[in-house]
Amino acid sequence: MTQALLDAIDRGLIVATQDGLQLVPRPYETIGT
Amino acid sequence: MPELDAVDRQIIAKMQGEFPLCERPYAAVAEVLGIPEGDLLSRLQRLLDTRVLTRFGPMMQVERMGGAFVLAALAVPEARYDAVATLVNALPQVAHNYRREHAFNMWFMLATETPAGIAEAIARIEGDTGLKVRAFPKEREYFVEMKLAVRQ
Fold it and tell me: Is the CB of residue B114 less than 8 Å away from at least one CB of chain A?
């Protein structure tokens, strides 16, 4: 996996949680999809 | 002010740090608190809905993401204060804009995706308001990790 791709995933994670973590039983799975 | 019961207070006290990185983190916290996972989720939703909590989620360190964070101040003529506040607050890079009793009477944070973005935001504010922005870049970081004590 390239560094650029990792950065894109990191950024996606940050964007997905900026307004807060989802209130669902599996929040990380929700972010991952 | 919404009433908080003992369980609400335990949730707030327990969830201010070290949220688990596991498949079902709410279930893990609920087990420690001795309540069902569904109750924890519905209580958190209620605490957010009633604005007891304004947000539940991770805090980002903008500089480690390649961005920048700078404290800034303006000396705003009193007659123009509201108009200048509107201009400053219109920028998405501005957060936490406070009024102060001082010659520098408007203090706010600038957060940008890149260090160069700070200079761009300052130039924009100076152009929009005609006022000089005093910037106070961070020289050293102190990790406070403020946690609020909650009465039981």
Answer: no
